[in-house]
Model the fold of this input.
Amino acid sequence: MTEYDIAVIAGDGIGPEVTREAMKVLDAVASMYGFKTKKTHYPFGTEHWLKTTEIFPESAFSEVKDKRAIFLGAIGDPRAPVGMIEYGIIAKLRFELDLYVNLRPVRCYDERLCPLKGKGPAEVDMVFVRENTEGAYSGSFGFAHKGLPSEVATQVMVYTRAATERVIRYAFELARTRNKKKTVTMIDKANALRAQDLWTRTFADVAKEYPDIKTEHAYIDAACMWMIKNPEWFDVAVTSNLFGDIITDLGAMIQGGMGIAASGNIHPGKVSLFEPIHGSAPKYAGQNVACPVAAILAVGMMCDYLGQKKAGAAIENVIVDLVRTKRIKGVNTGDHPTDQIGDMVIEELRALAAV
Ligand code: IPM
Ligand code: MG
Done:
């Protein structure tokens, strides 16, 4: 029986609670669909840093590198300096494991979850491919005359041809596999960020290799508008790191909220990381009120990535069904006790597997 080595970093705030539900579901699908997992739990996050001053020791990092996949709950806590834990854990994993695709499906499962008037599952069904290793996140920043009235701060957006090309190519490949409009929309701000001309040219070059795929283009500001006005316009969208970060939070809202938005940080063929896109929401930690649906869907994406397609599809189908039949009343904080959702999903998975 295939066994997958999985690293689990539950993290901060509500991370441990949603991770617990997600792992319950992973165990359940593994036994139903005939595979095994070997999970190694790592304690990293703000609590661990406060206790030990350790963020992500190299010894643990080299272990994690050799796993098949990583599951991350949530990180971030106001008790640590802004960005320190985020850069020490999530950004470190993204950069050092070269997880160049941040894959963020935006699919609304039921009209009742969509805040846009008259829009629902038929209109809100797209996937964002966010470049995940460079752009504004490249870590190229600096200060001069710090603390003086003349202080200067810089943050450089870095785009390489290689990283731009591979992520755009991933988007085209993805469009081919989706039974949708066979369209890739590139989102940038090349009219103001002149360096993004590299994106424009690379997109045009890669597009030539995919004559079966239609191309569209939108500047990021207009794309935000279209997401609200005509979300049906999008199929696959590819964009740079910072714009992808921002527009996928907007995407999460039109699919139902942070409680239902999952993501993968992927390097095809290599160890990849799956996480809900929500943060750690420290004020709700430990109260059993966080919504674990996004974390459970991230497990679904992980199964799909591992090649356990049936398990991945079953998880998503069960969530769709529970949402449409209103057994999942809502995906906001407090709509259900956290553990109740995991139990419901497992019960429903069993029922599905029995037919
Ligand atoms: C995300 C998050 C991260 C990001 C933070 C935690 C650094 O917002 O995964 O979208 O900006 O990429
Ligand atoms: Mg974000």
User: Anything to note?
Assistant: The radius of gyration is 20 Å. The chain is about 40% helix and 20% strand. The domain at 1-105+256-355 is CATH 3.40.718.10 (Isopropylmalate Dehydrogenase).
